[in-house]
Amino acid sequence: MIISASRRTDIPAFFPNWFMDKIRRSYCYVPNPFNPKQVKKVSLKVEDVDLFVFWTKNPEPFFPYLDELDGRGFKYYFLFTLTPYEKPLEPFLFGLKDRVRVFKELAKKISPEKVIWRYDPIIFTPEMSYDYHLERFSQLASLLKGATQRVIFSFYSPYPGSEKRLKGEGIEPAIGEKFAGERIGFLGEMHEIGEKNGMILTGCATPEIEETPAKQGKCIDERFINEIFKLELCGKKDTGQRSNCRCIPSQDIGVYDTCLHGCLYCYARGTRNRVKRNLSKHRTQSSCLVG
Fold it and tell me: How much is the pLDDT for 184?
């Protein structure tokens, strides 16, 4: 079993103590996001977990626990999202320079092959044009050269909550199939930048990539996992993900509306009141359901 930690929130950034408490107890409880009254017990025993996939924008709070995870025999890798937007799109993230520093520190601790850079989502607006992204992507790729071997990108997908938040800031992303042709040339240039910096460029849920030198990829990819961790996982698609997603099955242990980064474009973020309410529930649940 692969444990995804987490598509729904940033566990390394905000819940490292919670996570390690569950590791030491060898299980955790996960509410159904569509019916919170349905709660599933998930084993975190080392013999039941093939590996952990950590999704994060700031793994630094998790650094003190890496040695313990290693000592317990767990396998893992990080999907580190690093984008250049800052405010207003990413209002509560710390500075880009420090995030690059943290990325490099993580690579030194666990090896570059186990830290995958996610340049995601790519948002196009009149201000954030193709040239804007190519320039920023090139700058970041140069800074991260040697700290990662793979970069995964995806284009912004509209969700009701994110659309409302973006429009509230006067941001209207360019979306739709009519932009697919222009993106092909853009992706070709991204591929060249990645190749120049020793990175394999792959797309997440990006059909138009088939016409570019870049590769269609998976964030949770059995080929990568089997090669790096010497496992023998099959390539069956996770039917719980969106149709264009090619990830293999995993068990997510996160809770929606608990991430504090506050990114306007995020599908997993609710209103401020919902975040506060669910944080309270999450913390209560963390202590009372394990007893």
Answer: 78
